[in-house]
Write a structure and sequence with these properties.
Strands 1, 2, 3 and 4 form a 4-stranded mixed β-sheet that branches. The chain has one domain: 2-Layer Sandwich (Alpha-Beta Plaits). Helix content is 32%, strand content 24%. The N terminus and C terminus are likely disordered. The protein contains 3 helices and 4 strands.
Length: 125
């Protein structure tokens, strides 16, 4: 083998779920933003350690470009347009850093606004 030869060791494939996992993990860096919850089954899967994020959808179009749709809940009182822009920036930064790929679109859907409960109060309104 000479210095100029390239050795092909095979292909590296990244599953769409990996991209979704990175997008979901990047939300932890934004205060007042949480991946949308989907009822009892979603909480049970999370409790059992199953990493299925039903609020993250990754699509690869016919030209090979990647689109992400993410559904989130936000705390009451946050500036929603500002937070949505922060979500897009964080996801783009995290995916580009981890995978060295560019995203075509990051669509953010705010599913609900969560009100925090006063101290000592449990459940309900």
């Amino acid at each position: 083998m000479s210095l100029g030869e390239q050795v092909d060791l095979g292909n590296v494939r990244i599953h769409k779920k990996v991209i979704g996992d990175i997008a979901a993990a990047s939300l932890r860096e934004i205060p007042g933003v949480f991946l949308a919850r989907f009822g009892f089954i979603g909480r049970l899967c999370t409790f059992l350690g199953y990493k299925n994020f039903p609020g993250v959808y990754v699509t690869i179009d016919q030209s090979g470009q990647i689109l992400i749709e993410i559904r989130v809940d936000v705390d009451y009182g946050v500036n929603i347009p500002l937070v949505a822009h922060q979500i897009q920036d964080k996801i783009q930064e995290a995916v580009e850093h981890a995978l060295d790929i560019e995203l075509k679109e990051i669509n953010v859907s705010i599913q609900s606004v969560e009100r925090s409960l006063p101290a000592g109060r449990q459940g309900g309104f």
